[in-house]
Request: fold
Amino acid sequence: MHTLPATRIELAAWLRLSLAPGLKPAALRLLLGAFGLPESIFTQAPEALVEVAGEAAARAVLTPPGADFEGQLDAVLAWLELPGNQVVTLDDPAYPPALLTMPDPPPLLYIKGRLDLLHTRAVALVGSRSATPQGLEDAQRFARELSAAGVTVVSGLALGIDGAAHRGGLEGIGGTVAVIGTGADLVYPAAHHALARQIAVQGAVVSEWPLGTPARAANFPQRNRLIAGLVSGVVIVEAAMRSGSLITARLANEMGRDVFALPGSIHAPLSRGCHRMIKQGARLVETPDEVLEELGFAKRPAMRSERAAKREVKRSVALDVTGSRLPLLREPGSASVAAPPQPTAPFAEAVPCVPRPKPPLAPEAERLLAALGHAPTSLEILATRTEMEDAALHATLLQLELAGEVTLLPGGRFMRAHRA
Reply:
């Protein structure tokens, strides 16, 4: 198993493909299937590329890289020299197998920490950034018990439920994976800088974005699809009606993953998104054991006294004042826990982009809204009215849902969001 392309030329080819504007993942997979490694793709005649993947893909491949490409390549190579940093490509045996079942797996993954956690049983815990104290407590408890059962907890490093899920995951042998919406060398939000560093030591931080990519709102739905792709199931702890975690759940459902939701008070705004998902078919769960049972994950027997386990957990998650790490929590005889990784390199802080006035909708979005009208409409009808391809239709609906322009109704129908 290797985690670094063999040569600068090979890495450069993968990086160029990952940065090619307009090259869709499905087209990239066709090209790789036809011509093998990326460097072979760039030696093909334009006619051959068009025949395999179409004119748009051929144009994307043949477009010369930007003037700063060599600088980007040097930055990746320098980043890889730092302890714990890895790049995994789509043809690498180390590539997470769960992502290969997605229609659009990223050609490159930047990883800090334990690569083995991307090959384990995993469950995502997601929810509101503005979580209630009860929601934070529930998220950490679910994550802690899932991790104690040997299940890796995946989340998005956001404030609120995500942070609580990561902290709970760190308490058990299953560990935690943070899928982020910035470059792997940055941390957003800044409040989670220490948590991200701890995850990079004991778990894994994963990004598909080029190094140096700042926090942008448009990146996070794409981040959410990776969270959904890595796991067997998604648990929603708290979510408002327009929460991004509902998009994660919807993407997970489209990929054939199980979706679970914790119920709450009918008067609580952060329960309404969970209740909506339950109405649409998500499984109502009240305990971590229900999630384990539904997914067919057996609980691990207790290997030590509860008091001893708590002492070891405290030792394992502590960092001394110099920033060095202490021994990882490991279960004797566990085959799923890899040897302790090398210390990882520090992160820089991601400075969020300065908020700007809401931009006008793209022409495709305007066309879709016009086709939608003001009555509930199915995907099939929208596809007929707009003549949009499935991928473009789904992507545009996601953008409109995130922007608060469209509401998803029970039964998979859509309608314009009502304005107060």
Remarks:
- The first strand starts at residue 85 and ends at 89.
- The chain has three domains: 1-69, 111-349, 363-416.
- Residues 157 and 192 are 7 Å apart (CA to CA).
- The domain at 1-69 is CATH 1.10.150 (DNA polymerase; domain 1).
